[in-house]
């Protein structure tokens, strides 16, 4: 996304580009916002399958 400065405002093309990008971003971030509101969480920790597999190995070893 592009950002404007004091003496350099965004052009119309840049504004439209930012809107297109934000429409795609919101599809992924909306779920985490709902999770935070439901569980009153401050941080949401995203785990992947690889991280879960490593955690399982650590649990078995201990």
List key phrases describing it:
mainly alpha; elongated
Q: Explain this structure to me?
A:
The chain has one domain (12-61). With 62 residues, the protein is an all-alpha fold. Helices cover 66% and strands 0% of the residues.
Per-chain topology:
Elements: H1 12-39, H2 49-61
Question: H/E element string?
Answer: HH
Strand content: under 5%
Low-confidence stretches: none
Count of discrete structural domains? 1
Distance between the termini: 45 Å
Helix content: 55-70%
Count of individual helical segments? 2
The major β-sheet equals: none
Shape: elongated
- Give the tally of β-strands: 0
Oligomer: single chain
Taking all residues together, what is the mean pLDDT? 79
* Rg from alpha-carbon coordinates: 19 Å
Give a short summary of the structure.
This protein has 62 residues and is mostly helical. It has helices spanning 12-39, 49-61.
């Amino acid at each position: 996304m592009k950002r404007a400065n004091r003496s350099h405002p965004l052009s119309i093309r840049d504004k439209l580009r930012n809107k297109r990008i934000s429409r795609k971003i919101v599809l992924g971030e909306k779920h985490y916002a709902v999770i935070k509101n439901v569980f009153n969480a401050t941080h949401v920790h995203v785990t992947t399958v690889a991280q879960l597999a490593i955690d399982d190995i650590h649990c078995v070893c201990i």
